[in-house]
Structures are given as structure tokens and as C-alpha cells.
Design a protein that fits this description.
- By secondary structure, the chain is mainly alpha-helical.
- It contains 5 helices and 4 strands, in the order H-E-H-E-H-H-H-E-E.
- A two-stranded antiparallel ribbon has the order 1-4.
- It is globular, with a radius of gyration of 16 Å.
Length: 170
């Protein structure tokens, strides 16, 4: 859980100063509010130091305050557990189970049937997919959720050469 938006390990987290990044935050909030009816993925990209993590943190905090955050994961090169994708899906699965109590029993059942699922090559993806299949919301498309259970927030360091932008794939 050290990768979550509110983890003590990330204290103090980067945030957008009040009144800044209004346009990109507006685009992201429109995307969040669209829920399952909108694009299933929003790609946040930009060069190192452009403020992607601050934007993701600000969005995660706002979604959590509105009870719209199912899970979050912030990558960092500084931590072995937050620098490897193999920890992403199990961490997101646990957070979803904690944020949506009806999925806790489903997660328990999945782990009882296959206690090492998260160690298998695609097991952690299977774990998350199996957990999401049990959600009462409409069937998710890729990584989309209903408005009652919005998408997880994921922040990854990047060296993308393009200028900062938030975009949904077409």
C-alpha cells in the first residue's frame, strides 16, 4: 500500500498549487465524470519534471474526497516495490477490495483457489480481472469503471519527449 496516493511513504506528495493546471485538471475531471460511458484510458504524458505526478496526486485526492477513487498506484525509481510492474495489479486488486467491500469476499475466494496467482506471469492481471468481473457495475471495458467506482490512478515516471498533455486514445 506504499504506492497509494495517501501513503506515508509518499509524504509529502507532490501536488498542483491552487489555481494551477486548471485546463488539464478540467480535462481529467470531465474524463472521470464520463465513467464507463467515456474513454477507458486517459494517458498522462510529458517529460520528466513536467508535473505528471503532481497532477495525478491532485486528481487522486479530489476523487477520494468525492468517494470516487477505487485505487491508486504511484511508481517511483526510488523503491523496489514501486518500481516494478509485478506489484501494480495485486496492489490495485487489494485497494479495490478495500474500497468496495462487496469485492473483498471475491478476492478472498480467488486467493483461496490460487494462493500464488500474483506470482504467476500473468497471474496478477488475472487476479485483477477476476476481481473486476465480480463488480456489480456494468462489465468494464479494458480499465474503465462506472461512476460509482472510477478508474484507478496510476502514475509512472517517464522520459517522454512530447510536451505535457492529457489525452484519451482514439
Amino acid at each position: 500500500m506504499d504506492a497509494a496516493y495517501d501513503s506515508q511513504e509518499r509524504s509529502p506528495p507532490p501536488r498542483c498549487p491552487a489555481g494551477t493546471r486548471k485546463e488539464v485538471l478540467k480535462k481529467i475531471n470531465v474524463w472521470v465524470d464520463a465513467g464507463a460511458a467515456g474513454e477507458s484510458v486517459l494517458w498522462l504524458r510529458g517529460p520528466a519534471g513536467a508535473g505528471k505526478s503532481a497532477i495525478a496526486q491532485t486528481v487522486a485526492e479530489a476523487c477520494a474526497a468525492r468517494n470516487q477513487l477505487a485505487a491508486s498506484f504511484f511508481f517511483t525509481r526510488m523503491s523496489a516495490y514501486r518500481n516494478e510492474v509485478k506489484y501494480l495489479f495485486p496492489t490495485i486488486a487489494v485497494q479495490i477490495a478495500l474500497s468496495a467491500p462487496e469485492t473483498s469476499q471475491r478476492l478472498d475466494g480467488i486467493l483461496q483457489n490460487d494462493p500464488y496467482i500474483y506470482e504467476e506471469a500473468l497471474g496478477s492481471v488475472d487476479l485483477l480481472v477476476s476481481l473486476l468481473e465480480a463488480c456489480p457495475a456494468p462489465a468494464p471495458q479494458a480499465s474503465s469503471f462506472s461512476q460509482a467506482s472510477p478508474p484507478p490512478q496510476v502514475s509512472a515516471p517517464s522520459q517522454a519527449p512530447a510536451p505535457f498533455q492529457a489525452s484519451a486514445p482514439s
